[in-house]
Amino acid sequence: MHDLMTVVDWSRALFALTAMYHWLFVPLTLGLGVIVGIMETIYYRTRADKWLTITKFWMTLFGINFAMGVATGIILEFEFGTNWSNYSWFVGDIFGAPLAIEGLLAFFMESTFIAIMFFGWKKVSAGFHLASTWLTTIGATISALWILVANAWMQYPVGMEFDPAQMRNVMDDFWAVAFSPVAVHKFLHAVFDGWVLASVFVLGVSAYLLMRGKQRVMALESVKVAGWVGLVGMLLTLWTGDSSAVDVARVQPMKLAAMEGLYDGEQGAELVGFGILDPSKEPGDDKDPFIMKIAIPYGLSFLANHDFGSFVPGINDLIEGRSINAEGDTVNTVSYADRIVMGRKAHEALRRFDAALASGDSAAMDAARAEIKENYPYFGYGYLDSPEEAVPPVGITFYSFHIMVLAGGYLMLFILVALWSGYKRTNLWDKRWWQWVAMLSVAVVWICSEAGWVTAEVGRQPWIIQDLMPARAAISAIPAGSVILTFWLFAAVFTALLAAEAVIMVKQIRK
Hints:
The chain is mainly alpha-helical. The protein contains 15 helices and ten strands. The protein is globular and about 80 Å long.
C-alpha cells in the first residue's frame, strides 16, 4: 500500500508540474493571438507602417510562446497513457473523443496557418495573411475548447453509460459532453482569462520599452489596444466566473465548501474576502476554521445560488448528508458513509456480473447489471476507506481561490487606470513608478491565472472523475522510482524551457 500511495502522489505531482508549466503558455497564446489579430486588422485598414512594425513585434513574441506551449502540451496528453492507464481504459471512449478532435481539427488548423502567419509576408495577399493570423488564433482557441471540454467532463461526468461487459464507460450523448454548462463556462472563463493575461503582458512590455526610451509610438499604441482587450476580457471573466461558481455549487459542493473554508453550512452564508485558516481544524471537531477573517454578509449564498438567503452546505453537512430546503426545514441527503456503502455494492455487483458472464448465466447478469446501475452514481466512493478521504485539501483550495480573487480585483483596477492613462495628455506611462507597477503586474496576472487552475484541480480531489474514480484507482502499474525520476527530469526540462523562453523574449524585446 505504501508503494501504491507513493506512485499515486508522485504521479499527481508529475501531472500537476506538467499542467502548471503548460498553463504558463496557453493563456498568453490565446490572448496575444487576439491582440495581434486586432493590430494586423488596423494595419490592413490603414496600411500605416507603424502598425506593420507593431504587428510584427508582438507576432514574434506570440510565436516564441506558441512553440513552448506545444512542447509541454504534447507531453501532458501522453501522460494519460503512461501514468494514468487505468483512467484511460475506464473512460477512454469518452475522454479520448475531444482530445482526438483537438488533434485532428484544431492542432492541424493552427499548425497550417501559423506558417503563413510568420512566413507569408509578401508571399500572399494582405487579406489572406490577415485571415491566416485570425485562423491561427481561432485554431488555438478551438484547441483550448476541446481540451477544456475533456477537463470539464472529469469535473461533471455526463453523456455516458457504464458497460459492465467491458468494465468501462461508453459515450451515449456526445453533445451532452461537448456542451454541458460546466464545459461551456470553463472554456469561456479560460479564454477570457487569456485575454486579460495577454493584455497585462503587453502593458508590462510596453512599460519596459518606455522605460528604456525605445519605440514610444509603438508602446503607447500597444497600450490602447491591450487596454481595451484587457477590459473586455476582465468583464467577461467576471461574468463567466459567476456562472462557474453556480456550477460548482450545483455539481461540486464539496469544492465550494473547501474554497470558502466552510465546515458548517448556513442560510445567508457569508463570503470570506480575506482569512487565515486554522491548520489544525478537522471535519467534525469544534474548532473555529479561521484564526481571523474579513467576510461579506450573505455573499456566499448569493454567489452560489443568486439568493441571499439560500442554504450553502459546509464540509460537515456534506459528509453527514444534511441540507436545508427553501422552507428552512432540515432534510437528509445521501451521506458520504452511505455513498461508500453504495459504491462497494456496485463493486460487488460488478464482480458478480463478471462471474455470471463467464458462466453464461443471463439471469444473474441481469440482476447484477440492475444493481450496478442503481449504485453507480457513487461507484468511486467504494474505493475510499472513510468519508474524510473525500474532502479536498482545504488549505490549498482556500488560499489559491482567494489569491485568484484578490489578484483579479487588483488587475481590474490596473487595467482601468492603464487604459484611461493611455488616452490622457499628461501621461502616467511616462512616470517611472507606474512603469514599474505595469511590469510587476505581469507577475501578478500569471499568479492569478495559475491560482485559478490550482483551485479547479485541487478542489476536486481525491477525484480524477468526480464521484466515479479517485486518483488512486486511476494510475498505471509502474514502479514508484520511475515516476520520481521522471518528475525530476521533467522539472529540469520544463524549467530550462521556461528560462529559454524568457531569455529569447527579452532579447527580442531589447532588439
